[in-house]
Amino acid sequence: MGKKAVLLVNLGTPDSPSTADVRTYLNEFLMDPRVIDINPISRTLLVRGVITPFRAPKSAKLYRAIWDDKTGSPLMHYSLLQQKALQQRLGDEYIVELAMRYQNPSIASALDRLKAALVDDIQVIPLFPQYASASTGSVYDKVMELLSQWPTKPNVSFINSFHDNEGMIATFADNALKHNPQTYDHVLFSFHGLPQRQLVKADHTHLHCLKASDCCQTITEANKFCYSAQSHQTAKLIAEKLNIPKEKYTICFQSRLGSDPWVQPYTSEIVARLAKEGKKSLLVFCPAFVADCLETVYEVTTEYGDEFKALGGEKVQLVESLNDSPIWIDALEKMVREN
Ligand SMILES: C=CC1=C(C)c2cc3[nH]c(cc4nc(cc5[nH]c(cc1n2)c(C)c5CCC(=O)O)C(CCC(=O)O)=C4C)c(C)c3C=C
Ligand SMILES: [Fe+2]
Ligand SMILES: [Fe+2]
Hints:
Number of domains: 2
Bound molecules: the ligand C=CC1=C(C)c2cc3[nH]c(cc4nc(cc5[nH]c(cc1n2)c(C)c5CCC(=O)O)C(CCC(=O)O)=C4C)c(C)c3C=C, fe (ii) ion
Number of helices: 11
CATH class of the largest domain: Alpha Beta
EC number: 4.98.1.1
CATH architecture of the largest domain: 3-Layer(aba) Sandwich
Subcellular location: Cytoplasm
Structural class: alpha/beta
Shape: globular
Order of helices and strands: EHHHEHEHEHEHHEHEHEH
Keywords: Cytoplasm, Heme biosynthesis, Iron, Lyase, Metal-binding, Porphyrin biosynthesis
Family: Belongs to the ferrochelatase family.
Helix content: 40-55%
Function: Catalyzes the ferrous insertion into protoporphyrin IX.
CATH topology of the largest domain: Rossmann fold
Strand order of the largest sheet: 2-1-3-4
Number of strands: 8
């Protein structure tokens, strides 16, 4: 019998925090038509002519602030730990490969290794709990594009989303317990943002998304692939698990890019509002990320932390991501064995 494989795919990170490597990373990432979903000429002008030249030196500075001398980028460090831990759990029955959608290790190199190992079954797990065309959808595209060149196709399956996965919810709840969640004035569930037009595209009925202010409160046939609706569901499940009452938490979206409207409310505005209301301490979950990364370590702890304190707040505490928590590795193992 041939071997089975699991291909874990996260977003990717620059090879180093140098401006040149950050530029290469941003160009590959933002030229993806699923990320900047506008016509190709406008995308090239916008990304190569405006966003990357201005953003690369600024982002490189941020990456330098989070880069560890020994382990490099946190996203890469925790992704490698996840791969290693899952491989140990699954044993010889499976080969577990790690790839990044952008930069290295590339999906192409991981698939080459699986081809050489003569695998006949590949489970692809895009490491994004909530489905978005710009993340999960893009991983599907890349894997299928590369597999289209294989003379013989293996069995291939994809995990579309795991926004309500019991083990994922339990890991975030467990990580929060270390910080005594009940002692904070307010709790934020801050998800990575997405342009609003990408949410609307995921509504096959064209009747639901953003037509009412509460369109994301429950998952229906119309919004089952909606990143925002899935994010609301994840947050509700974590809050329920920790008995955090509705009035004590807010769901919000960070990391906006450009001037188009993104999914709201924006985390920066909520942080400012809570400080003005006199809240002193915030506990922040970032449940769109399976591994701590620039967006959690820097954006939440440093940027929102500084913003909150400048307006009178005292403490912003990040709940660490899933990283290599044994409960999360249990959940990944279960996902693979039950798929
Ligand atoms: C959670 C899944 C993600 C979605 C959906 C997503 C969409 C998305 N992102 C950008 C622009 C940027 N994102 C950046 C960093 C970044 N994004 C994700 C995940 C999702 N992005 C992660 C895990 C990271 C961190 C990577 C790391 O190395 O730690 C960046 C780069 C950093 C910076 O310059 O600020 C940009 C740019 C867009 C435009 C988008 C959807 C349209
Ligand atoms: Fe992003
Ligand atoms: Fe919605």
